Amino acid sequence: MSDVGLAYIDGAWCAPAGGAVFEVREPATGGLLGTVVDCGPAEASAAVDAAARALPGWRALPAHLRADRLRAVAAALTRRADEIAEMMTREQGKPLAEARAEVLSGADHMLWSAEETRRLYGETVPASTPSSRIWLLPEPVGVVAAITPWNFPLSMVTRKIGPALAAGCTVVLKPSELTPYSALAVAQACAEADLPAGVVNIVPTTRPAELTGVLMAAPEVRKVSFTGSTRVGRLLIAASAADVKRMSVELGGHAPVLVFADADLEKAAAGVARAKFYNAGQACTSPNRIFVHASVAGEFTRLLAARAAELPVGNGLAARTRIGPLINEAAVTKVATHVADAVDRGARVLTGGDRPDGDGYTGGTFHTPTVLAGVTDEMLVSTDETFGPVAPVLTFDSDDEALARANDTSYGLASYLWSRDLSRVIRSAEALRFGMVSVNGGTFAPPQGPFGGVKGSGYGREGGHHGVEHYLDYKYLAVELDG
Fold it and tell me: Which residues form the Aldehyde dehydrogenase domain (predicted)?
């Protein structure tokens, strides 16, 4: 890619006055993908001003016309799915099939939001006297600041801007500096869909603290939606107190898996492998602690290791690849540190456990899919989010023990359980202190489902009608009639 990626502000492609840019490199090769403008406080302020100017017109647009614009964005993404997927694979690393699925998922989120636009009804509440009336009127919260991560660089964007636009809000979005091109592809789709100037603004930067400082200080910004680390989320929550901005935060995870003795082990191993190694384990919902009943742990671990060993590692552009590179060298170092700590404390590597070598891996940030047996609770893999292709297997002897150990974390995003006993499923799902529970392979990310966590994993939901409601205020209207 030779062109410089530009910011999208007030319906126009633009660059900072000083011409600052930053490089984006391909994790599979280390090669230069391209350069993108490096926005700062001035561009952030311009984007907020543009969003504030666009807000009255956008919120006043009839719902069916807002829905038409969102559908047009979805159509533009779908039309260019192959092109965008290739670019996403090059900048983020995930296999091409996963990247294309993400683009189409992003389009689905825009379509769902378009449908929700028509369903933002108010309420009539029974009044206390015959001469009074009570109505609740839904109104957009205002300008929204959205901050998205690198691991799902397009679908995270549409999951935020879709419901915001459906509610009648306007948006300023800061994407990760590691994957700005995917977010700018959404900006291109917004331009092709003829969204009014200022409704969506996207400002890439390598100075996130400076730029988000402007967004958090701007009184026009009334809502912040953030997906990222718990550390940064806490800082943003603290900053939001100054003028009481509304917050939605999806932070880290440390997802447990419970495989009970009565589980279908073949299906459980396949399902855990699918969830664990998707996007090379770089997902907040990725299984991080796999608790297996001691009576079936040997067979389950054998099945899981066999599946992991069959996953080809390589450049995501290659058709055979199932495990692409990690996002950067720091990510590989963290994975290697977790594996080494586990081995030093007595765990056994059943497959993987190292960086692949050979010409196809030169310059890239690869790590083999790894299964560890004999893992215990004090190891790093059991206490820290690995964010890589490592599946640590621990054992348990009773349901109560498994649930207590699964809940023994400050995080509360995703959890998984495998059992064919309905009573055990219900009791365990109710006992797990996580925002989401997958039973026997259920998935978390359809646009109609409210995605989000509890405890240190944040609050707020994205998806479904719950996601749109986070961008609405309900005005209480009390009317006293004459006579």
Answer: 13-476
Q: How far is CA 245 from the centre of its chain?
A: 21
CA atoms of 77 and 103, how far apart (whole Å): 7
The per-residue pLDDT for range 298-347, each reduced to its tens digit, is 999 999 999 999 999 999 999 999 999 999 999 999 999 999 999 999 99
Alpha-carbon gap, residue 360 to 357, rounded angstroms: 8
pLDDT at 471 over 70: yes
- The secondary structure of the chain in percent helix, strand, coil, rounded to multiples of 5, reads 40, 20, 35
Q: Is the pLDDT of residue 227 over 70?
A: yes
Active site residue 23: no
φ/ψ bin of 40: left (φ > 0), alpha (ψ from -120 to 50), beta (otherwise):
beta
pLDDT at 1 over 80: no
43 belongs to the catalytic site:
no
| Residue 477 and residue 135 in contact, taking contact as beta carbons nearer than 8 Å | yes
Spatial distance between the Cα atoms of 77 and 99, rounded to a whole number of angstroms: 12
Q: Which amino acid is at 178?
A: L
Coil, helix or strand at residue 378: coil
Query: How far apart are alpha carbons 34 and 36 in whole angstroms?
Result: 7
- Give the whole-angstrom CA distance, residue 147 versus residue 159: 11
In order of start, what are the domains of the chain with their CATH numbers?
Answer: 4-252+457-477 (3.40.605.10), 255-410+414-445 (3.40.309.10)
Task: Annotate 95-147 with DSSP letters as a single string.
Answer: -HHHHHHHHHHHHHHHHHHHHHHTT---EEE--SSTTEEEEEEEEE--EEEEE
Are the C-beta atoms of 222 and 472 separated by less than 8 Å?
Answer: no
DSSP 323: B
Q: From residue 8, give the alpha-carbon distance in Å to each of 11, 118, 175, 380, 413.
A: 6, 28, 12, 41, 32
**Catalytic: which of 284, 310, 329, 469?**
284
* Amino acid 8: pLDDT: 98
Please, which residues have CB within 8 angstroms of residue 114's CB and are 6 or more apart in sequence? 66, 67, 68, 70, 71, 74, 162, 166
Q: How many CB atoms lie within 10 A of CB 374?
A: 19
Q: Distance between CA 180 and CA 174 in Å, rounded?
A: 9
Q: How confident is the model at residue 99 (pLDDT cuts 50, 70, 90)?
A: very high
Catalytic residue among 98, 102, 250, 385: 250
Query: What string of DSSP letters covers 271-295?
Result: HHHHHHHGGGG-STTSEEEEEEETT
